[in-house]
Amino acid sequence: RVRIPLPVSNILWEHCIRLANRTLVEGYANVKKCSNEGRALMQLDFQQFLMKLEKLTDIRPIPDKEFVETYIKAYYLTENDMDRWIKEHREYSTKQLTNLVNVCLGSHINKKARQKLLAVIDDIDRSKR
């Protein structure tokens, strides 16, 4: 057994939590179809994850908590709000943004709006290069 000093343990926990949260968003971005109830379940699952984390570690605030919550809540945005949201949230990958728009297609975003939003994402991606 090797004893890990508390500051080192906290850094390890922070990196593990950050990686787990980034992995959650990546997993959510791989969803092909999702209903409002499905997104609500994602929020509940994430809340359960946070409750378990808070029992395991004293790290506060939870790293990248807002990153996950913001992504889940973006599903509910209207077309105009999503356009603005996409432009303001450059922290998400092109794939994550594209999949978000595609999953919303048919539920509350039509094909024309989808094309417009995908063009916005493409413009942002080009500007990053």
From TrEMBL:
<dbReference type="InterPro" id="IPR040047">
    <property type="entry name" value="VPS50"/>
</dbReference>
<dbReference type="Pfam" id="PF10474">
    <property type="entry name" value="Syndetin_C"/>
</dbReference>
<feature type="domain" description="Syndetin C-terminal">
    <location>
        <begin position="3"/>
        <end position="122"/>
    </location>
</feature>
<dbReference type="GO" id="GO:0042147">
    <property type="term" value="P:retrograde transport, endosome to Golgi"/>
</dbReference>
<dbReference type="GO" id="GO:0000149">
    <property type="term" value="F:SNARE binding"/>
</dbReference>
<dbReference type="GO" id="GO:1990745">
    <property type="term" value="C:EARP complex"/>
</dbReference>
<dbReference type="GO" id="GO:0005829">
    <property type="term" value="C:cytosol"/>
</dbReference>
<dbReference type="GO" id="GO:0032456">
    <property type="term" value="P:endocytic recycling"/>
</dbReference>
<dbReference type="InterPro" id="IPR019514">
    <property type="entry name" value="Syndetin_C"/>
</dbReference>
<protein>
    <submittedName>
        <fullName>VPS50 protein</fullName>
    </submittedName>
</protein>
